[in-house]
Amino acid sequence: IKHFQTTITCNYPSIFIYGHRASGKSHVMHVLLKELELPHATVSCVECVSVALLFEQVLLSFFGCDAASLLPRSASLSDFVRIYRQQCSQSPAKQTRYIVMEKAELLRDTDANLLPALLRLQELVEDNVTIILLSEIVWDKFRPNTGCFEPLLLHFPDYSKGELHTILSQDRHPSYSDEFYSSYINILLGVFYSVCRDLRELRHLAALNFSKFCEPLEEGKVKETDTHKLWRNIEPHLKKAMQTVYLREVSSVQWEQMQQTEEKENGALRGLSAHTHVELPYYSKFLLIAAYLASYNPARTDKRFFLKHHGKIRKTNFLKKNEKTSNHLLGPKPFPLDRLLAIFYSVVDSRVAPTASIFSQISSLVTLQLLTQVSHDDQLDAPKYKCAVSMDFICAISRTVNFEIVKYLYDFL
Amino acid sequence: MSTSSVSKGCFVFKPSAKKKKTLSLADHFIHGCEGAENSEKRFKLCQDLWDQIKTDTEVLQDELNRNILDSLLDFTRKCSSTRQHSDWASQMRASEIPTAALVLGVNVPDHDMTFQSLSDLLQQSVTPYVASVQAKDNGCTLKHLIKRVLERLMGTVVTVDDEEEEEAEQTSAQHHKSVHCSLSTLCDWYNTKTKKSNTGTPGKKRSSPVRDGPQQPPVVIIFKDLEAFNPRVLQDFILICSRYIERLPLMFIFGIATSPSTIQHLLPHSVSSLLCIELFQSLSCTQHLATVIDKLILTKQFPFKLNGKVMQVLISIFLYHDFSVRKFIKGIQLALLEHFHSQPLSVLCCKKKEALLNVMQLDHLDLERIRHLLSFKRYVEKQEPREQVDLLTDDTHLKEVCQKLIKDLHKYHKNYYPILRCLHTLTSSLPRYPLGKQIRELHLICLEKNVWESEDYQSAMKLLKMLAKDELIALLQRCAEILQPAKSKKIKSALVQLEDMLTKFKQLDTAEPPPTVEDSITSPLKHLQKKTDLAQLQKTLLEMNESRRAKKLSPFEVLRNEALEFIDSLVKSHLSPPESQVLNEVCYYTSSATVRRHLNATPRTSIQAALNSPFYYLQTEDGTVSNAAPDICIVYKLHLECGRLITFTTGWNLFSSARFIRAVSELEFLGFIKSTKQKTDHVARLTWGGC
């Protein structure tokens, strides 16, 4: 950080800082700029849905809302530069101004000229200004084709175990002692450090499981210093937490509730992913089955599956060399609407009239994201779809309508 | 499918209560309706009935949703209160956005009502700041979504408070500049709002529950259809929101149609870890339908009935196509309207007293219509010759008989539904459900034919004869409970008999120790349990039963047979299909084809119908293909006569070339032919035979 302070004072036009998530980039920047009382503007690029919004926020924090309101309705980069220079001449800077941009990787998706221009903003506005970009990815992925000013690169390395420990120990519970909490963190890191190094996640876990950790203490069974016993007590819980909470399948509130009622009903709570059952109308199920078949079977094989007298064509006969790999490994393939309907009619056992509601079911399956439309929306003629459900899902669906899907899948022949 | 049905369609979907509109609706109804004399009366009846059905279903829906809505409200309250707590655990969690995932099932059209009542309830009791967004109305960019949310939030408050209207307008004017369209604007706005309500000069107050409630009411954003949102947009939106969570008490409600795991598909871990998700499961739509049928159809309350086929159509549309209860009710509405529109005698389809009055007011023409009813003809044939003549000639006599018949019909309905429920309770728990699991299935069977003649009924009865004592007693007890509220004489006497039998069963218990035969049943039963084949089990059990019957019957068995025979007689006397009732045409709507045509549109058939007989749609005088027909129809006719490949040459001779080419390309657009590469001036035919 010391090193950082020195670089920041030697007004370099742009600085690029990268490091993994939760490695303290924005925090350090924030604290530093606050401490040194430097004029700065912090902008998150996610929030700026348009470039104009970005400019506006910068102007707002440097020169107040008068300047911001000067921006025209859809401001361009040149508008921004113009107003900035204008304002700048009115209130010349005594110190370097800083613009901090979080999640800078999103700048790549904006106009091609924005990023190079920002990097040279110092020259453009003729003011003592520094752009600081914060990102999770390295600079090599940013560099535009046309070439641009190379910013000063800084890397924030991941925290080590010891550092994590210090940081986590900082937000201790007010009613417990420092040592006690730090020993708790020690145990926690012992369990989770091998799988997770994300500070945010670890903090979350620490917060969740602390009450359980304290339980024997409150019951008066052990003293604060008796770490070994406490460890014996908490370890199974942490192991369990590793399975469920880490993926946020169970929300934190539910987790706490479960800890309270745990003794009574063990494992009654299921995670989000356990609820995969979907109720669908009868024909929608068959449409989905047909879509699945169309996605995972090569079109040539339709004849063999859906014609009554397909003759004795064996699998080997139409195995081409490149098709040795399983279709399920390759993922779903797009298919036209015609094929979907043809398979649908041969799969459904009763005669179905091609009514409007059948077609509307297809589109509602698309909205439910069980199918995805591959072709462009504008293409009215022969739209193409892909089936977006998993094998397990389709098996469950076909079981409810007594349809043996495995018999119809080319991969399982 | 004529234009008149189109106008009816408008009527069906917009039952507006406005006076002016009603007038025109009535005109629509009366215009072109069968038997115009009493059409106004019929229209009134129809509308009253529909209003009643509508309010009833709304009440029903509210009741059904109550549970889930209440728990959601609790959730929001809890969230807003924990926010203000400053204990350690909730501080650590403060960065999470509380989220309720509401799983509603795939019948998306039904959800609107649920969300509407949800946001109403929220606004009433928890927070004035509720915004609900739908995927389809905010395009697919983040900007639109934010804009929409801001509009909804700020807009809703404008209507609440007059004093603040100006200011809110100003802010909205500002963000209409679309420069200010960010959450920080919302944040500032929220702060000024809450500050104002906190300092609370008495002149400016919002609805009182808010003032009593938490100091910082949460801002609730409802995503009606989570699946339809662009995942990218959603992620960004949540990221932005989480930046503001410290300043703005945000809360989400996700409406999920498929399953909760879609949240994980939509949002990566980095985003979903910002949420604190709690799951709420709503009632499944099949249960919902069952309740609606139970309350709406299986009741004598509404004189209007559907016959078996219409019911079948409506239920199959529900089960096979859309799972939408709303559409089901719309179907009933359509049937109701059609019934009153097309059946002049539907004037008698109302409450008993009113119907009796209406009978007296029937004119000669209507009485003639009664004489032509199929059920009435059958009735006449059964009478003595003298009576027959009277019925067919004497109008006053006919009116009296009609009154009696209408009374009979109402009695039939009074008895039908309790007995139906009884039979359902008895049979719904039998293995393999011979008479259906749901009461609607049983109802359908009963509507179609004499239920006691069906094989399923016989097997159900056989299974009932094998029930153990405690099971049978429990079932009979439940039957007695069902019969309890009924008022008709026959049901009352049946109830007395049933209770009589129940006491006998119980006396059996006290009078003697359980018969030894039971032991001998149970032991082979145990032995039988090893065999998994149900049919075989049943067969052996039947054999056992018969062999036992050959022996002396125990008193329990005697009583059991007696009870079942009693049930059987009840079924036989009350569950005859409505077609057997005289004057059933008055109450029962029969045209399933119309309902199907209107609710389950078939675009292909209508196109073909239009091409075959354009006059039907163009409403000119009838005729076959003539010069007056549109070109495309003629080309269509021509193409029907051809084989797989069609050459252009036939057409060239008949038409001017431009018109012909246009017609051909129209036909190609409709998908009947396509150009082929096999021969240059040929097209291939794509459809064969009927639809």
TrEMBL record, chain A:
GO biological process: DNA replication initiation
Domain Orc1-like AAA ATPase: 13-132
Localization: Nucleus
Principal location: nucleus
GO cellular component: nuclear origin of replication recognition complex
Swiss-Prot/TrEMBL keywords: ATP-binding, DNA replication, Nucleotide-binding, Nucleus
InterPro entries linked to this entry: AAA_16, ORC5, ORC5_C, ORC5_lid, P-loop_NTPase
Pfam families: AAA_16, ORC5_C, ORC5_lid
GO molecular function list: ATP binding; DNA replication origin binding
Source organism superkingdom: Eukaryota
ORC5 lid domain ranges (all copies): 181-248
Limits of the Origin recognition complex subunit 5 C-terminal domain: 280-409
Sequence similarity: Belongs to the ORC5 family.
Biological function: Component of the origin recognition complex (ORC) that binds origins of replication. DNA-binding is ATP-dependent. The specific DNA sequences that define origins of replication have not been identified yet. ORC is required to assemble the pre-replication complex necessary to initiate DNA replication.
Self-association and partners: Component of ORC, a complex composed of at least 6 subunits: ORC1, ORC2, ORC3, ORC4, ORC5 and ORC6. ORC is regulated in a cell-cycle dependent manner. It is sequentially assembled at the exit from anaphase of mitosis and disassembled as cells enter S phase.
Protein's name according to its UniProt entry: Origin recognition complex subunit 5
Organism this protein belongs to: Sander lucioperca (Pike-perch)
From TrEMBL, chain B:
InterPro entries registered for this protein in UniProt: ORC3, ORC3_ins, ORC3_N, ORC_WH_C
Origin recognition complex subunit 3 winged helix C-terminal domain residues: 652-688
UniProt keyword annotations, A-Z: DNA replication, DNA-binding, Nucleus, Phosphoprotein
Keyword set includes Phosphoprotein: yes
Annotated ranges, domain Origin recognition complex subunit 3 insertion: 361-591
KW Signal (keyword) present: no
Record-given protein name: Origin recognition complex subunit 3
Species in which this protein is naturally found: Sander lucioperca (Pike-perch)
